Amino acid sequence: MIRIEGQPILTAAQMRAAEDAAIAGGATVESLMERAGAGVADAVRRLAAGSPVLILCGPGNNGGDGYVAARVLKAAGVAVRVAATGEPKTEAAIAARKGWGGAVEAFSEVSPAPILVDAIFGTGVSREVEAAIGLRLGKLVGAARLSIAVDLPSGLGTDDGALLNPPLRAYDITLALGAVKPAHVLAHSAWHCGTVRIIDLGIDISRGGDMVLGPRCFETPGVDDTKYTRGMVAIISGAMPGAAALAAEATMRAGAGYVLLLGGKSPPGAPHALVRRGWSAEALEEKRIGCVLVGPGLGRDEAARAKLYAALASDHALVIDGDALHLLDGRTFHDRGQPVIVTPHAGEFAAMFGKPEGSKIEAARAAAAKSGATIVFKGPDTVIAEPGGHVTVAPGGSAWLSTAGTGDVLAGAVAAMAGYALGRGPRYWVGDAVWLHAEAARRLGGAFIADDLARELSAVRASL
């Protein structure tokens, strides 16, 4: 089993294309099914630890994978039963059922087992699952000590994570066949998948351009680094200076060498290392500035708009967050020489681009193409989309991040990385910031506030 971090994400169509390419290269549907079933059996055998196993098989090739897994488990001495929703309908699945050779119980009458393996529907399902199947499946999953889905929990839409089986429960483990699918990483469907691991099918999955955010390798300052080469970041303050000060502290603790807070009164307790100056558009003419952050606590009046426009007129990389997102008025950045990063949560995204259509991945991709900016669509699944079409997804964000100010901390971390590593391109340093932010939240556990999160960025960097 392979962890999903850093792995490609394939849609249903891309996965079919990868399988077709493998078949064109000499594989067969049956050989791919054999690999899938054997991989599932190996994982189930280790996870079951000697407990009886029940495998539920559907009529398609996902069911065929289940029959192969049952045959391999039986040969290994595992107590395994098989139940089916109906007769197999594909040639490969028919052959796999014959290969199982054992009894096949009726799905509607089968009794529960400690280990439940769902191989009813996989990536091929695109319509709502019959209510009777969904209800029965839910009861069997609920009765199991350990529930395992083959490729996807039956009733999840592969590409958008839609619930095609409304009573769908959460599984303990999902064994993704060949590659990660969007439903494995999009927040609400990922919850139903539980822990996701990949079963390698030995096929080329490099055609999938999107990726799961993986572990990061952060550079440490070299002997020739200075506060300027480590990244000088200017942060524009506004109507609510506490938000800008919080973002400034996060920027410093994420690794920036010099942070300049422009305008507004710095609240008591702000770090003494933070450089404070009054607001002026001329301050942005400083050539050593690597990135400008505008938006946290900015306000939405004409004074705030003037500050945003001054930032837009500068020749620095920009991180645009919070209030500033509501003042862009549909502006695009295709012709801007330096990168622009916008960091909306769901409400801000809808205000900027309208109600998302399709999956969060496709909505972010379309927004990046339209705006010419790198989109950091925040949430329990943070989607990073570049104007060129590449998408990185960071799944499994801490639910405790749903507290005021954590977005300001993320914006500060993005600005810190931009100020230091502009030459690497947004996908890398934005990914660094998102990973750092999520790791700080993970280490804090629960009931933290944004101030704790900002300080924890230092601890995470120090531990790497």
UniProtKB/TrEMBL annotation:
GO terms, molecular function: NAD(P)HX epimerase activity
Q: How is the cofactor bound?
A: Binds 1 potassium ion per subunit.
Indicate which residues the UniProt annotation says bind K(+). Answer: 62, 118, 154
Which residues are noted in the entry as AMP-binding? Answer: 378-382, 407
Its recorded reaction(s) are:
(6R)-NADHX = (6S)-NADHX; (6S)-NADHX + ADP = AMP + phosphate + NADH + H(+); (6S)-NADPHX + ADP = AMP + phosphate + NADPH + H(+); (6R)-NADPHX = (6S)-NADPHX
- Keyword entries, A-Z: ATP-binding, Isomerase, Lyase, Metal-binding, Multifunctional enzyme, NAD, NADP, Nucleotide-binding, Potassium
Q: Required co-factor?
A: K(+); Mg(2+)
Alphabetized InterPro entries for the sequence: Carbohydrate_kinase_pred_CS, CARKD, Nnr, Ribokinase-like, YjeF_N_dom, YjeF_N_dom_sf
EC numbers: 4.2.1.136, 5.1.99.6
Positions that bind (6S)-NADPHX: 61-65, 122-128, 151, 243, 297, 345, 408
Where do the YjeF N-terminal domain residues begin and end?
A: 15-209
Give the residues annotated as coiled coil.
none
The YjeF C-terminal domain sits at 210-464
On whether Ion transport is a keyword of this UniProt record, the answer is: no
Under the heading CDD domains, the entry gives: YXKO-related
Protein function: Catalyzes the dehydration of the S-form of NAD(P)HX at the expense of ADP, which is converted to AMP. Together with NAD(P)HX epimerase, which catalyzes the epimerization of the S- and R-forms, the enzyme allows the repair of both epimers of NAD(P)HX, a damaged form of NAD(P)H that is a result of enzymatic or heat-dependent hydration.
Q: By its UniProt entry, which HAMAP family does this protein fall under?
A: NADHX_dehydratase (MF_01965), NADHX_epimerase (MF_01966)
Quaternary data: Homotetramer.
Which family does the UniProt entry place this protein in?
Belongs to the NnrD/CARKD family. Belongs to the NnrE/AIBP family.
The name of this protein is Bifunctional NAD(P)H-hydrate repair enzyme
Q: What is the lineage of its organism?
A: Bacteria, Pseudomonadati, Pseudomonadota, Alphaproteobacteria, Sphingomonadales
Q: Which gene encodes it?
A: nnrD
